[in-house]
User: What shape does this take?
Amino acid sequence: VQLQASGGGLVQAGGSLRLSCAASGRSFSTYAMGWFRQAPGKEREFVATISDGGGWIYYADSVKGRFTISRDNAKNTVYLQMNSLKFEDTAVYYCAAERTGIAARGIKDYDYWGQGTQVTVSS
Assistant: This one.
């Protein structure tokens, strides 16, 4: 599976962005998908995950109520809608795919990673 993340950019605090992650291959609907982020000088951290069928969704506490993960299996794409953005959301955002289809929070649970897209929130 190859993953291509897009949709990052520069936005003012309080604004919104929608990230997309397009996957190649026919097995997209069998993978759980996740979003992670990495700020400068910090470790990569979990943001959100969605199971293969979309029935299980988990968020990091820091984004709960502001971010929404969704997927369109017909389009082989997973999305991350980010609202009420804060300066501390600034990071490179990565999408990842997990082969068992089970939504997971751990970096090591994921088998494939995209290249990342930069999100910068100005205060």
